[in-house]
Structure formats: structure tokens, C-alpha cells
Design brief:
Layout (H helix, E strand, L loop, with lengths): L14 H8 L6 E5 L4 H7 L5 E6 L2 H16 L2 H8 L7 H9 L5 H9 L1 H6 L6 H17 L2 H9 L4 H12 L1 H10 L2 H7 L13 H13 L8 H8 L12 H9 L4 E5 L2 H7 L5 E3 L9 H11 L8 E6 L6 H4 L4 E3 L1 H10 L7 E7 L3
Parallel strand pairs: 1-2, 1-4, 2-3, 4-5
Antiparallel strand pairs: 5-7, 6-7
Helix pairs in contact: 3-4, 3-6, 8-11, 8-14, 11-13
């Protein structure tokens, strides 16, 4: 993969449960993983003192700068249209007239080079989003018609619907096709960076097939806007938290509290001892056990004012409180309760931990 390409253009971690987990207030200083920026913008909606964003992949920071400029320059409907939530043929004109003048030089150079991504609607142009487009093009039509998909997301299911889904999931052809598409080699080639799988010790295709099956058989699955996107290529009316109208103006008014940094989250812990909250996304998934423990040791620093950290486990178990039980406390009930509400079906665990003594 070219070093200039985007890994994700949407955050695939549920901001609604992240906000409930961290419960940010006006005195909080938050460290947050960049990714596509969505969840960092959502944290701004709670008017913290500052949200400091770190990412080691520069194109992701350029994407966040683009979204920030779009929030600043446009009203809500124009923002949705420019990013790709709504159809438009005027994105380049909007970029040239309203967005580009607000971008830092490095970000403007990047987006001038990749204007064709802006024309498509940038939220559809990440590597993971491309993976979902392949699913819609080559897999979904084999297992479900457009009418089937529309019916699935139309509303609450009847008993006959669940009987039909169970039959389809048990079909050997369906089973093999879906497991192939969810396999580690296909994900490496088309969906995620190969390095992200170096700590995986289980059958990824079986794990994801089981997770997807549970999602399909969930009575509330029709309300899931993340999976609506995977199946339809648009979010429809179920927008991510940062893109909802009721949150837009709070985010816009707090954009001066957003700071972007190029580097690892560990650098932020050293540079920002006043940090009270951390959104770590699923970065510990990719670390070796030793790297994870070294990160944990940094959290134990008496100079760090950390109150709470939240993060996801995809398929690799990483929990600080298991190694540092005298210093870090797992909020078991809260973690489990929020995990049941998580709209991104494929995560194994959502972890909320507090630092003992802070």
C-alpha cells in the first residue's frame, strides 16, 4: 500500500459508547487516537479543555484537518454533502472556495494531489471502506438481493425472518464464501494493514463469521448505521455521532480546543502529563505483549493525572488491569454494559479502566 493512502475515512469504533465510557467534562484534557477523526470530534462536543490527537499515519491527520475545515466553513447540510454523506457534483468547487484556504500547507498539498478522492466523497475512500465496497459488489449479491437488504434494515424482524437468516447462515456455499471473504489473507490484501495481524493467534475467518452471524440474528440489527454502510455504501439517516445535526454546532464551537500531533500515543503521555482521559481506539491490538506492558508502565507514572482510559480489543486480548491490578481498575460492569450496546459488531471486548488513586 502506498504510504500516502488513507487507511480509514470513517472511525469504526462506536463514539456513543466511547463518550459514555469517558464521560468527559470541561476540565478534562484528552489524548485521542486520530484514525479518521470522527471520535475526536465527538469528544469535542462535550466541551473538554482540550483534545490532543496523535497518529503515526500522516494522511489520517490530513483527513482530520479536512474534516475540521469542513466543519468550520460549512453549515451542517453542506458539511454532510461535501464529505460524502449526501450526493453532490460540486465538491471540488466547495473545496477550492471554502475548504482549502483553511487548511495547513502540508494538508492542502496532500488534498490538491488527491482531489479525485474529494470528488467521490472522502468518507468512501479509505482502504477499509474499499473492502466494504468489494463486499457489496462481489459477496452480498450472491447471498442477498437488494430487496432482501432493504427488508433487513426496514424495521423489526418477524420470527419467519430469523428462520430464513438461520437457513442462509447454515448453507454450505454461503458459509464458505463468507468465510473466504472474512479470512486474514483477504483482509490483509484489501481491508487492513498486514502488520495489524501480527499478534492474531486464532482463526480470523471463523471469529468474524460468528460475529457476523450474531449481528444478523440480533433483533436490533436494523438500527445499526455502521452495518447499513457496509451493506449499502451510505449511512442513510443513521449518522455517526459527530455528523449528527444535534452535535454539529457544539463541535464547531469547540474546534479551537483540537490539537493534532504526528507521532505515537506514547509521546502524548510524556508530553502531556496533565492528561485525564485517553481514547486509545484499538491500538493495543497491534502491540506485542512487551510493548503493551511498557505502555502500561507509562500510565502508572505519578506525574500523569489520568482518570480513565477506554479502548477496544479486536481479537487480541489486551487489558492493563490484569497486569497492573494494584494500580489500574477494570470497570467491569460499565465495560460489559457498553459492549452490549456497541454498534460495531466485530470487536471482542470494550475496556474501560480507571487509574487507582487518581
Amino acid at each position: 500500500m502506498e504510504s500516502e493512502k488513507l487507511l480509514y475515512t470513517n472511525c469504526w469504533e462506536d463514539a456513543d459508547i466511547l463518550l459514555e465510557a469517558l464521560n468527559p467534562g470541561k476540565n478534562d484534557r484528552i489524548l485521542s487516537i486520530g484514525s479518521a477523526g470522527d471520535n475526536s470530534f465527538s469528544l469535542l462536543s462535550k466541551s473538554p479543555e482540550v483534545v490532543i490527537v496523535y497518529d503515526v499515519w500522516k494522511p489520517q491527520l490530513h483527513l482530520i484537518e479536512l474534516k475540521k475545515a469542513a466543519i468550520l466553513a460549512l453549515e451542517h447540510e453542506g458539511f454532510l454533502t461535501f464529505l460524502g454523506f449526501r450526493e453532490s457534483g460540486q465538491r471540488l468547487a466547495v473545496y477550492n472556495e471554502k475548504i482549502r484556504p483553511l487548511l495547513p500547507v502540508e494538508a492542502s498539498i496532500y488534498w490538491d494531489k488527491y482531489k479525485y478522492l474529494l470528488e467521490k466523497g472522502v468518507i468512501h475512500c479509505g482502504k477499509l471502506e474499499h473492502y466494504f465496497s468489494l463486499f457489496r459488489r462481489f459477496v452480498l449479491p450472491v447471498i442477498a438481493s437488494k430487496k432482501d437488504v432493504e427488508h433487513f434494515f426496514a424495521g423489526p424482524k418477524q420470527a419467519a425472518d430469523f428462520d430464513d437468516y438461520r437457513r442462509r447462515l447454515a448453507n454450505p456455499f454461503f458459509h464458505v464464501l463468507l468465510k473466504l471473504f472474512l479470512s486474514e489473507p483477504v483482509l490483509k490484501a484489501t481491508g487492513r494493514q498486514p502488520a495489524f495481524f501480527k499478534e492474531v493467534k486464532l482463526s480470523l475467518s471463523k471469529y468474524l463469521f460468528d460475529k457476523l452471524s450474531a449481528f444478523i440474528l440480533n433483533p436490533n440489527s436494523h438500527q445499526n448505521h455502521y452495518m447499513y454502510y457496509a451493506a449499502n455504501g451510505q449511512f442513510g439517516n443513521g449518522l455517526p455521532h459527530y455528523a449528527r445535526k444535534e452535535n454539529f454546532h457544539a463541535i464547531k464551537s469547540n474546534l479551537d480546543r483540537l490539537e493534532l500531533r504526528y507521532g505515537r500515543l506514547e509521546a502524548g503521555i510524556v508530553a502531556e502529563p496533565g492528561t485525564t482521559l485517553i481514547n486509545a481506539s484499538d491500538i493495543f491490538e497491534y502491540m506485542t505483549s512487551r510493548e503493551f506492558l511498557l505502555f502500561g508502565e507509562m500510565l502508572l507514572s505519578p506525574h500523569l493525572k489520568l482518570r480513565r482510559i477506554a479502548y477496544w480489543n479486536f481479537v487480541v486480548d489486551r487489558v492493563f488491569s490484569q497486569a497492573y491490578q494494584n494500580y489500574i481498575h477494570l470497570e467491569t460492569d460499565l465495560s460489559n454494559a457498553l459492549a452490549t450496546q456497541d454498534k460495531v459488531y466485530f470487536y471482542k471486548r470494550f475496556v474501560v479502566e480507571t487509574k487507582i488513586g487518581n
